[in-house]
Amino acid sequence: ITDLKAAMAAKIPKEQERLRELRKECGPKALGACTVEQAIGGMRGIPAMLWETSLLDPEEGIRFRGHTIPELEEKLPSAKEGGEPIPEGLLWLLMTGEMPTVDQAKAMPTVDQAKAVTELLRERSKVPDHVFKVLRDLHPNTHPMTQLCQAVLALQVDSKFAADYRAGIHKSKYWEPVFEDSINLIAKLPTIAAAIYRNTYKGGELIEADPKLDWAANLSHMMGGFGRVSSRTLNKIGVDGAANLSHMMGYDDEGCLEMMRLYQTIHADHEGGNVSAHATHLVGSALSDPYLSFTAGMTGLAGPLHGLANQEVLRWLNEVRAEVGDNVTKEQMKEFVWATLKSGKVVPGFGHAVLRKTDPRYTCQAGFAARNMPDYPLYKLVALLYDVVPDILIQTGKVKNPWPNVDAHSGVLLQYYGITEENFYTVLFGVSRALGVLSQG
Ligand code: CMX
């Protein structure tokens, strides 16, 4: 079976029954106590939400339907052999709870579930003109995350759930229009994100999707890909010309496409307690449709202590470079970190409300950087931060987790491939987060 909705339809009645049973058998049981500090701290550490798509272990990090990040890198299908995982495979896993079947040999495409998701999303990717108009009419200084929220709200006019609810749909069938809205929204997000990028930074000229590319690679392409280079051209350019290659191809560079696939996979879900997931879930519980609920999540992701931290990390690194140049010593870096703390600011990209070790999403991106950009100065700078920051945060005596989180590394990968506009980074995070929070819906 490669039809995602049919796979869901086969599971949903059993899941509904499982939930009824759970309630009946365990309903009155207590999950734990709640302290005053936890209440003040915004429910930190209180097991108070059902979240099935992923589980966050403080020591081990995130597991998506039971699979760690390294396992996902190994098991999820990829666009090229041995390459990075594609988010379509993750979406199948998150929604159905099962690893998608793959057809890496390309012999039987009809059994390739991840590929079927790619096609499903492609079919529904067309964004109505009125959404582009909304984006064009916004104040030019509107932050890309605010633009994302406005565009998603503009799409809400087509909500199937809202229409079916008005028509009196039975509650046991809610999942169907929620599924339709979720897939429609996920399918359109790359085009919307690319339009925001092109409008804000590239004069507004949009780039058409490439029907041969997968979901995440198309996002990269529509942001500014200038075409993939044939092997004949590659041979002509030869090794000496390789440095110019990325420049010529823009974000169609193979490395950039792979980076985007990985990026979109690992940012998808982080259990239900974080602000974007919780907000989406909370608003959804009022039976607000997926467009409204996801927008609530995105307004939360736009906060500097959550998703906007990836933008803040880049700003902060650029301040370091402006002050001391690229060849920063350990001592200079220490001084800079202390100065940040003394001025009453946080060190962005470090710390976490739940994690107590280095975020495996950080480690995974560091691995990608080591493989693809080992000599890149910004990568070295981030590696230096890893050496310096945790010790200092420990010395403050109050930071519970001194280790880096996902946002400490993502900007470096984007910068390397020429996506230098850090104000846009959280939009890329948001596109990925849709996979997780809408699957849980
Ligand atoms: N730099 C400076 N101080 C920090 C810190 C950091 N990176 N991380 C925590 N602290 C401080 C807190 O501000 C708090 O100080 P006060 O008691 O004066 O208020 C104290 O240490 C205790 O905080 P905590 O219990 O360790 O952490 P919280 O659960 O309160 O906050 C988080 C978690 C992520 C908001 C925090 O670590 C932080 O602000 N980090 C920097 C921003 C960041 O990288 N956010 C992205 C997180 C990942 C994501 O959601 O995308």
Automatic annotation (TrEMBL):
Pfam families: Citrate_synt
Domain of life: Eukaryota
GO biological process: carbohydrate metabolic process; tricarboxylic acid cycle
Key words of the record: Transferase
Alphabetized GO MF terms: acyltransferase activity, acyl groups converted into alkyl on transfer
The keyword Transferase is assigned to this record: yes
GO CC annotations on file: mitochondrial matrix
Family annotation (PANTHER family): CITRATE SYNTHASE, CITRATE SYNTHASE, MITOCHONDRIAL
Protein family (similarity comment): Belongs to the citrate synthase family.
The name this protein goes by in its record: Citrate synthase
Species of the source: Chlorella ohadii
